[in-house]
# Entry
Amino acid sequence: MNLKILILPGDGIGTEVTRAAMQVLGAVAKKFGHTLELSEGLLGGIAIHKTGTPFPKETEELALKADATLMGSVGLPEFDTAPPLERPEAGLLAIRRVLDVYANLRPVRTYPELVESSPLKNHVVEGTDMIIVRELTGGLYYGEPRGISAERGFNTMSYTRKEVERVTHTAFKLARNRRKLLTSVDKSNVLEVSQFWRQVVVDVAKQYPDVKLEHMLVDNAAMQMVLRPTQFDVMLTENTFGDILSDVGGILAGSIGMLPSASLGETKGLYEPVHGSAPDIAGQNKANPLGAISSVAAMLEYTFGLMKEATAVNEAVGKVLASGKVTADLRPKGKPATTEEVGQAVSEAL
Ligand code: NAD
# Structure
């Protein structure tokens, strides 16, 4: 099969983990006899430096031509005080919107080998296996009006029926093939937009009588995720709440560096680790590349339907975790491995 993929390494550790993920992608292609048609583009801070904008037209064209995009992460400290629309992160929001990848799947599971890596007690995290489905192209991050002046800053959280319906269908379909439990997370005790979200989810649920639907307020959901994470199967939530709750997932999985994500629309797929550009460890060959590598597995599964290949990557990750050759964030007993060593180890385990 020909795999047409755009690579966007981005900033900071994004470039490092993407290099490791590409090595694994190359190893998969070789082992299973696929051809890679790769292109590379600019996104984020590096794109601002080279072209003056975080999402250059050329990157947009490449993304629309590719079947899937593999992204690292964006963000540079020098832009910390820049207005939101001129920051590297604006590039990320723009590419999600252009590709119309409205459903962001963020699996959170605890590998048996990593139970000790989580700061939570073993009996709490053991057996965690959930997917957060985050709405990705609407809500507070895109809502208008938005603005900032000397006396006031404001944003708008708004959803249309269509926006809620389509991501809710994605979540129900996932739940149907798992443990058949969907928890919709909102703030309907305070926000009208959340009351609307809840009504639409209830309407869509009528088409999935085999899946149990529960509702939970977002503040309680944050607490329940660290109190009893095994109660969750599929968690559906809006853009901002999903952004925040999935970082809690990093605690359950041992490190945020472990978490992959898949952003899906009707035709395109965008794959990236959940973490950011981690300026505190950038350029030190220390970053955990397993979230990026697992994002490759997600790409093989969701965009290309290559289940055997996806399983092989996930099993190779499991083998490397069992071998103890892991980066510092997972608190290994011996000397921590480098980003490159972990990428090499996963490729060899394949
Ligand atoms: P971050 O995820 O970059 O880092 C948070 C903490 O986790 C840091 O201590 C970092 O060292 C650690 N960490 C993250 N990924 C790791 C990995 N793979 N291996 C080991 N440790 C890892 O979040 P932040 O510090 O809040 O943000 C830094 C920059 O990244 C900001 O500019 C932010 O806007 C941006 N950001 C981008 C994305 C994205 O590209 N999708 C996501 C989140 C944040």
Q: What stands out?
A: The domain at 1-101+259-350 is CATH 3.40.718.10 (Isopropylmalate Dehydrogenase).
